[in-house]
Structures are given as C-alpha cells and as structure tokens.
Design brief:
The complex is a heterodimer of chains A (311) and B (375). Chain A is α/β, with parallel strands linked by helices and 311 residues long. Chain A has helices at 16-23, 44-50, 59-69, 71-107, 113-169, 180-189, 192-196, 206-210, 248-251, 257-267; strands spanning 4-7, 29-32, 54-56, 172-175, 178-179, 201-204, 214-217, 230-234, 242-246, 271-275, 280-284, 287-292, 296-297, 303-304. Chain A is built from ten helices and 14 strands. The chains are: A alpha/beta (311), B alpha/beta (375).
Amino acid sequence: MSDVLILGPQYRTPNLRQALAGAGLHGPIATITAGWQEREGELGALEEHLGQRVRDLRLYERAEGLFGRDPALHEAYRQRQADLRRLQEIYRARLDHAKAAARELLARPDESEILRWARRDAVAALRRLDATHLRMIERVHERFMARWSAALRPLVAQQEAEIKHLIDESGVVCIAGGHVAVLLNRLRLFGLRGLLRGKPLVAWSAGAMALTERVVLFHDHPPQGAGNAEVFEAGLGLIQRTVLLPHAATRLALNDSARVALFARRFSPAACRTLDDGSVLHWRRGRLRTVAASSRLLRTGRAAATEVAHE
Amino acid sequence: MNEPVAVLAVQAPPGLAALDAARQSPIVDPGGLTFVYRGPAEAVRLRLWIHGLPATQAFERAGPGDLWVLRIEVPENSRIEYKLEVVRDGREEWILDPLNPLHAEDPFGANSVAQGHGYARPEWTNVDPQARAGTLEDFVVHSAALQGERHIGVYVPARFRRTRSYPLLVVHDGFDYLRYANLQAVLDNLVHRLEIPPLIAAFTQSPNRLEEYAGHDGHAQFVAREIPELLQHSFPLHPSPAARGLVGASFGAVASLHAAWRHPGAFGRLVLQSGSFAFSDIGHHRRSPTFDPVARFVNEFRRRPGLPAERMYLSCGIYESLIYENRSLVPLLRQHGIEVRYEEVRDGHNWENWRDRLQSALTWLFPGPLWMVYE
C-alpha cells in the first residue's frame, strides 16, 4: 500500500497543502467530492488553498447520469437503499437495548468476578450485533449484484475506464468529506477500491471514514435520539484496524469515561482515532508513521494523544 | 433580542448586606429569585404572568432607606417575564426593572426577564458567525381566498441549489418569529449543524389574526393551497406531505391545526406552540368571546380529528393558563395515530419560550443529515 494521509475537517482551517508537503506527495491532483452531492466539483476554495488546479472524478454526476439511462436499474437501486434503511432501523432498535445493558453493567461500582464476566459478555453481545449487522448489509449488496451486475457492467465499464485514466494521470487522489453514504455508494458503484489501490491517497472526514473497514456513525448528543454509535457499512478497507471519528471534539463526549471506554472496547482491536482541525495520520506501506492532533480512545476511558511508537 | 448577560447567582437567599450591595436584579439562588428595587416609592409590586400565582406581589422595604425587596420561590429552569409596578405620589407606573439588563420584546412592548436557577439561553438561538447565512426574499401575493394582497417573507437557505428539492415550512406570525424568536438565526444554525435539512420557509403575518386564525376557512385555503402553489413556481419544493410543515404559536397554533385539518395531506408536519385550544366538553367555554370561533373549531376537531398531519410537535409553558387545553389535546392526537412529541417547560406565553423550543420542534419534524454528513 502506498501513502495514505488522513486529515481532519478542511473547511475551517485547512492543512491539506501543508500535509501533502510534509508527506512528500507531489504532482497533479484528482479529487473525489461526491460526498458534496449537488455541490460536487465546486473546487474554488480547494484550488485556492492548494495553489494549483485539480480535476474532479465527478462520481456523483456519473451515477446520476447512469441512473437516468436505466430507470429499471435506478428503481432497483432505490429499493436496495430502502432495504438498507430498514435494516439499519431494525439494528438501531436492537442496539438501543444491547447498549443500554452494557452501559448499565459498566456503570455499576461492583467489581466482583460475576459482574466482570457479565460486562465482558454484554460488550461481546454488542460486538456480535455489529458483526451480524455488517453481514446482513453485505447480503443485501450481494443480492442486488446477483440480480443486476449483468445490466450494470456495460453501463459502468466506460465510466470506470474514464475514472481509471484520470487516476492514472494524477499523482495523488484526494477524497473529501460530506455525506458518507452518498460517497460510499459512488465509490462502490464505480469500483474505486480496485482503482485506488496503490495510489497515494489523501482523505478527510467522510472521505477518511470511507477508506476504513467499518464505517461507524456517531454523535453523543444529537437533538433527537439515543446517541448510540452505529455500524453503517463496510468501507473500502484500504485502512485497516482503524475506526475514524471526524469532528470528535464536537460530536463525542470525550470527557465521559464510560462512553469512551465502551466505544474503545466495542470496536477493539481497531484503534478509534479522533479527527479534528489540524489532525494528520500518515500511513506508509501499511504502517502508521505519523500521528498529529489526533487522540485514540482507550479502554480506560481516556482519549489520549498517543505516540505511534507506543501503540 | 437579548445577548448573553451574566445572571447574578448565589447559593442561598441573600442577606440584607448582600441585598444592599446588589447592583443587579433579580438575585438567583437554587430555590428562587430575590428582586431588588432601589428608589423612593410608596409601594413597589411585581407584576408577572404565571398561571397559579397572584398577578401582583408586593415588595417590602428593607432597612431604613429606599431599598425594596421581594423573594419568590421558583422551581429550577424557570424563565419568567415581569414588570415592576412602582407607586409614587399616588400614581402607579409599570416599568422595566432598572436593575435587570435582560429584556424580552414582543408586539406589545417589552418585559424584564428573570432566568431561574438552571435556565440558560440555548446557544443555537444566537447568531453563529460560523453558520452560513440564508437570505430573506419578499413576495407580494394576491390571495383569492382572503380577497386581498398579502406580504410574505421567504427564507432561502445558504448554498441553495435549484437541482435539489426542499421541504417547505409555513410560519404563522412569521415576522414576529423572525423578530422576537430569532428564527432566521435559528434556521441558519440548525441547517449549519445538520440538525435539519436546508429548507424554504414562508413567513406570513395576518393583519387580523384573532379573526383569521380562529378557524377561518379562507385563511386555511391561503396557507394550505395558495402559498405552496405560489412558491412552487419560484422554488424546487419537495411535493411530499412529509416535506411540508406548518408552524404557529397561540392563535397561530389554532390556525395551523385548523388549516391542516381542513386540508388533509397538505401538511405532514405541524408545530403547535402554546395553542389557544379553547374547548368545552359541556356548556360554554370559560374564555372571552374572542375564543368563540376557536372553541367551535376545537370542539368539532375533538369530535372528529381525522389525520391532519402524520407528525406533530406541541409545547406549552406550565406557567400558562393554556396548559390544560394543550395537555388535553395530546392523548387525543395519539389515539388517532399521530406521532406526537409534547414538551412542557417552566415558562409563560411568550416569544422566548417559543424560541427556545424551536430546535426540539424542527429536528423532530425534519431530522437533518446529522448522522450522515462529516464535512
């Protein structure tokens, strides 16, 4: 695996240019801004920050065009999305109870062997639920592809060739944040997992989440709802054993040690890492080499700015 | 509109020395509020609008000078609007509390505001420089239903795109919501925080609200049909009832429920704040004749509610006389399959109460992409 740079949000205090220079990444830049939806390709601020022109792969626009050419495919795609939403809703209902049980047991002051066993089992139940949910999502995708891959293949093939050409011409591919489901669906649709492999990548926020093995949605204090972090989809898996948490400073109660501890235990052995303004994580050949302005959620309940060598 | 002001808070009711030194009123402690007035007077009274408490409470002179003091017990998280009634030379005068920098404006003037222990103005009600600002556009529409021209303000969210379809929120007393409940900043902030989707909001303001909001079919036609049809030509509006909301407070809540009831399917979402839902189970209602048409409508509604909207948000202050009517409505709505979120708060019938509920109301009716978007 080539260089992968993961950054925090870029819209307030961007550090993309500095991070590219720091990692020694140069050359023409291709962007993926499908997460911006209708604003895809509005690159003025990004180009101004970088001081160079960039080319967008226009995955959102390509997908819209593709659906426009095959209404039956579009309808099947919508149905798949409706199935996934239903699945997520059912998972959420189960998660509410499983998480409440784990929280309650972890909060008890009792340190007896019986309670330790019960806590371990409650966390294991959460992990089983997350894993089952991911498998069920995968089944929905497989069912869709079994039915539609023959129709999809020729439609996508030309787009993939164009995308591959643009990627080949670039030195670095940047994947911006935005709507993580929209982004992930477009990355999947056009087979970006294969096309990006081996290419130097820079990704931030939702773009960073999409590169991991598991996309975890989270917000500890939403205006409505329970605030339970939830597994949403399998990502591209280009970053492994990591859960990335953009905007953690505002979205997570990092001073709530019980929540932090449960988060870390639930997704272990993956490292749960925060991404806020100024964050930089740099992987080279699959090994994490640099960590700046990012904390790791620990089983002890702390969010600690750890050094790479200590991990 | 108030900006954040530090409230004078202490752990226990203050003694005479502390009262004498106080330069701000009221002094807040966990059990209540101590009001302080300094000046020559024959009597000083607190005038407040809390259902269940006397409308007037007398201050007592503290010590030999012109220091007047009144302590009242108030539960945690209360917010109270009041005036002082000062008697000098035999003349009564209602004034804002000269020692209290917190004021709340409304169409009738302004009141002083006492923030009880635990109350804090929600930060999302203030202008956030980080939030991209939407714009306001003016429309003049000829209403066939109301037989005249009406002025409408339209909020267009930041980063508006014609290629996207937007929910529509129609707001009764919309210009009052903008002025007294800071609604434009609230919309900017909630959209920016991804708590609601970007939406188009239409602000109406009736010149004769007590008549037009009290179960008036012409008004219902205006908000349920004419406004959406007009705006459909100018903005890409999502056609689903789930993407159509109607908002109102006090008589505006009656108008909202009535319009949705008369035009089922026009609005899938309602915000009803401190609704003036006068009704009578038997005999005549107990309110003024102004409420006669309201009670006729609400009684009819209670007999056959139908499904005016799939989801509603209701709120009422427990210091309002309307708490009984609002509480009574909730089980009826739920029995008829409507998803209801109902909140009671320690506040009165006023715009800042309605302002403070907007996050809860709008995120319940139009949940935003908070969980999905990481920019």
